[in-house]
Amino acid sequence: MSHVEQGEHDATNAYQSLSETTAHDDPRWAFGTGFEDGLSLGEAEITAPVPEGVDAADLAAYCQMLGDDALIYSQQLSEWVANAPELEEEVALANTALDLLGQARVLLARAGHVEGADRDEDALAYLRDQAGFRNVALAEQSDELDFGRCIARLLIFSTWRLALLHRLLDSKDPVIAAVAGKGVKELTYHRDYAARWALRLGDGTEESHRRVQAGLDWAWPYVEELFRTSDEEHRLIEAGVAVDPAGTREEFDAVLAQVLDRATLTRPEVPPVGTIGGRSGRQGVHTERLGHVLAEMQSVAREHPGATW
Amino acid sequence: MTATDERSHPAFEDEFQATIDADQRIEPRDWMPEAYRKTLIRQIAQHAHSEIIGMQPEGNWIGRAPSLRRKAILLAKVQDEAGHGMYLYAAAETLGVDREELTEKLIESKQKYSSIFNYPTLTYADVGVIGWLVDGAAICNQVPLCRCSYGPYARAMVRICKEESFHQRQGYELLLAMVNGTPAQKAMVQESVDRWWWPSLMMFGPADGDSPNTQQSMAWNIKRHTNDELRQRFVDMTVPQAEALGVTLPDPDLRWNDERQAHDFGEPDWSEFKAVISGAGPTNAQRIAHRRRAHESGAWVREAARVYADKQAAKKREVTA
Question: Care to name a GO molecular-function term for this sequence (chain B) (predicted)?
Fold first, then answer.
């Protein structure tokens, strides 16, 4: 009996001690959400020097590309919270959104540091306008709570990003290499999750087959952009910091072919979304969707300029 | 007389009561009175539904969280709630009901969830106040459930309480940051506390005189304290925390009573409570419609998973045949 009371007493004590605890001395406050426990990547590494021979502006831009893809995808994926078809899917999709958000935070913090203009992860996430974002169009699309779209888009995105991160494990930038190290494990899970559902939906019922195929047809026009190489990337490939996205196409095609075949799905034959004067997401030229995404994401932060949260 | 009632042999009944009296656990395979089973199913289902419905008011702010750290904390918290729902539905399943059946009852409004989630989240401060007051009240209610007589429920609660207390700290930490921030942030916290204080007190249920199920639940060691005892404990814990935050709790009758060594406080508006639990709160219809939409629009996905699993099983049988 005494140990039972002790148990309750302890829990109550932890609760009562709340008002004595301050925000800054207790690392448990941010458990699972900070850099330290998230990536075992301390502040010191975010501030690592720019590798020799690398243009700082190019590196900042590249970290933004990789970071914005993750941030905006995470934002759009979190539309599924409280809307998923089953509780297991709630947990899995929220977890995927959290993984990507974690990657985004480190990459944006790195971008801000390298840029040297005193912008932190939040300044980059909340105070840039549309044209300042460098994510690909696929990341900013909404699944509109259609699980067929969700799986098709996630399969494409995670297959591509996993191929990129694999090749970034040896990046000369220590922060990018560290993000890749953790990200490969995360993206392996995301891709596996999407592929398993592609099989279930593709080879499930007539309706599920139709809907996941429609999801693929919807997402496919955004695929070509994933393999376009920007000027910054071209320069950073030389320096051993970036990888050429064009070089991941073969792996992407092989993985998709394998999954689609087993899932009895057809690779869509649809024209890609066009560019404007050769410019698209990497150059800050987006689809109409991004304005709405940012309007939501940035609303509270911009209502309270200078506030800390 | 049903078959179950015929099984209510006095010897089983005695053994059951002896287990309860010795403060030991009843496990799924043990004999238990039908009324005990029904009470537990009702309570665990209500608790599971609360976790799932509770994802909506907080999920409302994930897309707008004002810093990436806050976004990660909120996303992780809402994900935990889905996880809690899963453990609790699994605990209910040990009593012979399944998740699908319980979800149907929820969306047909045949089972309840915590009245608190029938209030809207109107500002980002609400995310912090839900953590501090709502999760705080939930912890007061739930810590004693870790000693509940039904084993699977008690074990689920141990895990849930750990995570809840963590969520409560995070909520409080958000509020601390806000009250130390701009005047607008501080005002936002006070406005939020003004809206959530009374609904939080109502989370403990009606006054003891109006709580018909309490005595039986206490006799079965499902419940350990009365509603009013828990409410008092919550108020006594919360007052110093409010002082530390520099916010005012909106109750003119709230004051320390030296004789009782406890706080006196005002009476919640029980007519509002009754309206909310009978379906007429600010967001009852919205919450259920949302849950129904999510469940129904996921039907084709769940069906596809079943059909696919059947096809795979049939293929395996062909191979082994």
Answer: phenylacetyl-CoA 1,2-epoxidase activity
8-state DSSP, B210: G
**How far apart are the CA of A71 and the nearest CA of chain B, in angstroms?**
9
Mutate to test the interface with B, among A68, A105, A140, A200 (most CBs of B within 10 A): A200
Closest chain A residue to the Cα of B51, Cα to Cα = A82
pTM above 0.80, yes or no: yes
Q: For A65-94, write each residue's pLDDT tens digit.
A: 999 999 999 999 999 999 999 999 999 999
From chain B, the residues in CB contact with A11 under 8 A are 139, 143, 146, 161, 165
Q: Which of A290, A11, A184, A218 is nearest to B165 (CA)?
A: A11
Domain residue spans of chain A: 54-303
User: Which H or E run includes B264?
Assistant: strand B262-264
Interface test with B, best of A78, A81, A144 (most B CBs within 10 A): A81
pLDDT (tens digit per residue) in A240-268: 999 999 999 999 999 999 999 999 999 99
Which residues neighbour B172 within 8 Å (Cβ) at sequence distance 6 or greater?
A18, A19, B128, B131, B132, B241, B245
Q: SS3 sequence, A281-296?
A: HHHCCCCCHHHHHHHH
**Best residue in A28, A71, A79, A90 to probe B by mutation, most B CBs within 10 Å?**
A90
Residues B132-142: b if buried by 16+ CB within 10 A, e if exposed: bbbbbbbbbbb
Region A54-303: CATH code: 1.20.1260.10
Q: For residue B183, list chain A residues with Cβ-Cβ distance below 8 A.
A: none
Q: Do B181 and A97 touch (CB under 8 A)?
A: no
Picking from B164, B168, B232, the residue whose alpha carbon sits closest to that of residue B201 is B232
Q: What is the DSSP string of B97-139?
A: --HHHHHHHHHTTSS---GGGGS---STHHHHHIIIIIHHHHH
| Cα separation of the two ends of chain A | 43
ipTM score: 0.94
